[in-house]
Structure prediction request, 234 residues.
Amino acid sequence: MRILVAEDDRISGMLIRRILELDAGFAITMASDGEAAWDLLIAMTEPIDVCLFDVMMPRLDGLSLVARMRADARFKTMPIVLCTTLNDRATVEKAISLSVINYVVKPYTRSNVIDKIHLAVASTVGVQGVEASGAACVRLGIDFDTYKVLAQGFVDDVLVWVRMASQKLGNPQLLVSRISGLKGSALSLGARALAAKFDVAESLLKRDGVDGITGAFLISVEENVRILQKYLGL
Prediction:
């Protein structure tokens, strides 16, 4: 997996490189700021699989770099993980609006960085984040009809959760407790984009309570549900 990292702080950059180099499957290219990362993106002859950008950088900050990429057809759907010391709602909402749903809050831990990278890549695999149903059936050892029944039950559970969140029903702990099961079901069924959404929802709820789940975020969850329904003919 080819990873482009943009980090202006020398020590943080060394740490990120060290974390990523522990995985033999990663090839890392480092950039010192957002402008350098952009220059590398447009000059590279081999495609980048995922980007890892710091938010606060000179010349071109991480969010501005992402906005520039999303305006370019070559990078419109490229998986991106943002790294930041910021933990404010406005930053998260801006990232979501740019189709960045994975971010790492410093200080870094290896497991968190690696998990977010894999989640970001998984969210773009298959039909907009849905594993091929045949592959999922083989992996699970079930036939397609059984898979569809399970998927329909999962969709129903997700929509119940969305309704509870939109109406601010229940306390944050209840919504978070339901996320664990939904995320596990999403991963089991191969609905990787939805699993990534619930990973973000869990972070938002723990930080901001029910107010952290915005209408725009819930709409994006429902869009992923519709993709799954259309793909499986539910």
